[in-house]
Amino acid sequence: MTVEDLLAREAIRHVMAKYTTSGDRLRVDEFVSCFTEDAVIESEHVPADRAFRYEGKAAIRQWQERWLAGEGATHGATFVRHHLSTCRIDLKDADNAEARTYWVAWTDIGPDHSGYYLDRFRKSGEEWLIAHRRVRMDWEAPDSLFRSAIPNSRSGWT
Q1: Which domains does the chain have, with CATH numbers?
Q2: Which of 27, 34, 124, 155 is 20 to 30 A from residue 10's alpha carbon, by CA?
Q3: Stated pTM of the model
Q4: Where is the SnoaL-like domain (predicted)?
C-alpha cells in the first residue's frame, strides 16, 4: 500500500463521515457536496413502498430539502444518529474506488434500523465523491420511526 492509497482511503472515509453527520443534521449543502454531479442514490432490498432512487445532485438536493422542510411528516424522531462501523474500501485505480460499509441508525426508540452501503467513489479534482450509493436495509425495529420516512419524502420521486 502506498502513501497515495492511504490518503485516498482517508479522503473516502472523510466523505462517508460528512455524508452521515450532515444527513443527520439536515445540512443540505454539506450533504449534497458529497456527491458527483451525475450521482445516483438508491435503495435496494426494501419493500416497494419504501424504495427510492434519485439521479443527479439536483434530485438529491430536492429530496433532502423535503426532509428539511418536514414535508409529509417524514418521521417522528427528535434525533437521528447514523453510526458507521466495518468498512472495506477497494481502490480500483487512481480515480475510482468501491466500498462496503455497515451502519446502524439510532433514534428516540434506540436502535431503529440498520444495513449497509455499497458505494462507488470517483475522484473529482482533489476530492473523492460518491458516484453511486446503494442503501441496503437489513433490519428495522417493529416500531421504527422511519417506516413512514421514505414514503413521505418521495414527492417528485424519480
Answers
A1: 3-152 (3.10.450.50)
A2: 27
A3: 0.90
A4: 5-134
